[in-house]
Amino acid sequence: MSYRNYILVCGGTACESSKATEIYEALVNEIKHQNLTEEVQVIKTGCFGFCEQGPIVKILPEDSFYVQVTPADAKELVEEHIVKGREVKRLLYNKDKSKKHAKVEDIEFYQKQFRIVLRNCGFIDPENIDEYIAREGYAALEKVLFEMTPDQVIDELRTAGLRGRGGAGFPTWMKWNFTKQANGECKYVVCNADEGDPGAYMDRSTLEGDPHSVLEAMTIAGRTVGANQGFIYIRAEYPLAIHRLEIAMAQAREYGLLGKNILNSGFDFDIEIRLGAGAFVCGEETALLASIEGKRGMPVPRPPFPAVKGLWGMPTVINNVETWANIPVIMLKGGDWFSQIGTADSHGTKVFALTGKIRNSGLVEVPMGTTLREIIYDIGGGIANDRKFKAVQTGGPSGGVITADYLDTPIDFASLTKLGSMMGSGGMIVMDEDDCIVDVAKFYLNFSVEESCGKCSPCRIGGRTLANLLEKITKGNGELKDIEQMKEIGSAMKKASLCALGQTAPNPILSTLNYFEDEYMAHIVDKKCPAGKCKSLITYNILEDKCIGCTACARKCPVGAISGERRSVHVIDQAACIKCGACFDTCKFGAIEVR
Amino acid sequence: MSAKKKENMFSRELISFIEKWRNKPGNLIMILHQVQEEFGYVSREAADQVAYMLDIPLAKIYGVLSFYHFFKTTKPGDHNIQVCLGTACYLKGGDMLVEELGSLLGIGLNEVTEDGRFSLEGVRCVGCCGLAPVLTVGKEVFGKVTKDQLPGIISKFS
Predict the structure, then answer these.
(1) Which chain B residues are closer than 8 Å to A351 by Cβ?
(2) Are residues B86 and B136 in the same domain?
(3) Does A91 lie in the same domain as A176?
(4) Over the stretch A262-284, which tens digit does the pLDDT of each residue have?
């Protein structure tokens, strides 16, 4: 059965929080009301990626891209667009008013994107297996089961050159091959969906928008390495993704695509969900396995690697969600096709969660080798509020910053590492001139300190000491020798920590020291915070020539630190000021300066 | 405390969940999630009960409870306000929201108001970075929150 129109409503977490469910229901009701249920289908899809403009509604076949829709707009969308065939112009995403309507491919946010991982997100109803199957879903599994030997699967991955998307970039075919060759009573396949990097949500969106792609890939891995049981370790904080995975697993079992004797091939494979409980270190593979075993998630030294001795001591393949989502496509289109995309060092695409002080926040998937400038300026639309770009942070608490001088660097594993940052899982946070680099380093260090499991002392003690030093500097008590000490501790942690969390925890400091030493110096020597963020180092002052005496700031000040007669210049009592910035936000005349 | 009396504190669903998972390896975290789902936190009594039902030491349960941030061992307020302190929200002033909420409610981070109505918590990325700064109250998500909106959000739940 085909419909005259399809209305796609984004059902990702960000749009759901802005009432996408209500919009969906309002549209369904309105279609019913107009007696159009036979002609028009309303579908809740996964994330479109353009979160900044959410909630998003797309109507096919016209490909009209409606943004910032509210439940109240449902009636007009149906009456105008569906019934009368006239687009609702006021809701169309359209920066260029001269164009009649903005097709999705015309939107600059999508132009440089190339979607492999997110191929189905925003196109299919993730709660309906038939829609996944209609877009070549489970065809790769069929091919692997009936036309390929395990060695051919591994060869295909080797040709593809797929590297782990969780952060470290280890070649996927090698992991699979080690596990395949390892001996064990049984073997396991694990999906790492413990996306802990603050500011990254690629994996969540993939699972919410296209859960079957991960199930299919894990089953392929099971067949290849000889495992019959898989586990998806997912954050408990992702209820929608968990819900959709559960639906997907039930549907796959019903269709004979999961469980006993898959597609009558004689191969058995099933998957269970295990919930994380908010520990960043569980993204580290040995800690993750301990957590699946129900224990405290503490890493153990490698080797032995999980590929040889993993879950309950058995050989285990662990890959991250994004890595999994690539695999069905590679099996169908071939490793050669995949290896053509990207750079010599890194093949394929990478999904980034582009956030921070950027105009178009959202989820973007680009071929490896795309430059940071293209992502930030062409796709991201540049810096929000016309502020000046300062740096972009990749790799989360394990990564570092990249400055304007390096914006033309093509992104791949090697180039980011060379710049002192890393690919990481895909968080890309843009900072502008109002962000204090020392404060950002402190933010990440405090994160790593809180998340350190405490097992090894370099990480436990080193991390705390670094965080204390940063606290001291941002409070205005920094000394020059602190910088040397931070470098020394940082390099010791890199060498001596047990797992990647401790080894990479100093990166935010080392990388910011490298590019922004002058800003550290301003804090330490001049006792000033150039960005005006560190409260101990700033003062608010009223500019005599700009203050018109409107009294707005004095009324807003929570501690009554501002005095002055109406229509005369006001004064801030510095001793009483708590530096909350309320006066600064309130003043319409730019009469308050931060020094 | 008799075994029978202990059983009474868990609902029938929870007991059957625990029975179902009893013999599965690696069950503890899944069971604790279910306990927290029912009570909003894992009390000492509930932990005792789990230890009893699974026949494992209480210390093992507290080892796990204290390791993972998600598990709470004290009762949260009726409305738990969670302010996202992920990187994007932090850059856009998530910490300011915590400060302001603290002074509006008269409590600090991870504290509960005297009447037990509200508690305040900082959480890691809720994954709506496009809406930063974000806070959640129960299942409701508020995006692009400004300080001025906070009294309104609180009164909505008072």
Answers:
(1) none
(2) yes
(3) no
(4) 999 999 999 999 999 989 999 99
Which whole-number Å values give the CA distances from A157 to A161, A169, A324, A346, in the listed order? 6, 14, 12, 13
pLDDT of A64 strictly over 50: yes
CA distances from A243 to A65, A77, A91, A240 (A): 27, 29, 31, 5
A393 touches chain B (CB under 8 A): yes
Chain B closest-CA separation from residue A159 CA (Å):
34
Q: Please write the tens of the pLDDT for every residue from A16-27.
A: 888 899 999 999
**A305 touching B (Cβ < 8 Å):** no
Q: What is the pLDDT of residue A98?
A: 54
pLDDT digits 0-9 by tens, A492-548: 999 999 999 999 999 999 999 999 999 999 999 999 999 989 999 999 999 999 999
Q: Is the pLDDT of residue A100 over 70?
A: no
Alpha-carbon gap, residue A54 to A122, rounded angstroms: 12
Please report, to the nearest 10 degrees, the dihedral formed by the alpha carbons of residues A189, A348, A130, A121 taken in order.
110
Question: Which chain A residues are closer than 8 Å to B130 by Cβ?
Answer: 14, 51-52, 54, 355, 361-362
Same domain, A321 and A229: yes
Residue A194 tokens, joined: 């413990």
pLDDT value for B139? 79
Cα-based angle A324, A326, A328 (whole degrees, multiple of 5): 90
Same domain? B35 vs B85: no
| Structural domain span for residue B45 | 12-67
Helices (H), chain B: 3-7, 12-21, 28-39, 44-54, 58-67, 87-91, 94-105, 150-157
Q: How far apart are CA B89 and CA B144, in angstroms?
A: 9
* A443 and A424 in a common domain: no
User: Do A189 and A237 touch, CB atoms closer than 8 A?
Assistant: no
Mean pLDDT of B95-115: 93
State whether A427 and A445 are in the same domain: no
Count CB neighbours of A74 within 10 A.
24
Q: Hey, what long-range contacts does A492-495 have (CB within 8 A, 24 or more apart)?
A: A492/A458, A492/A462, A493/A458, A493/A459, A493/A462, A493/A463, A493/A466, A495/A458
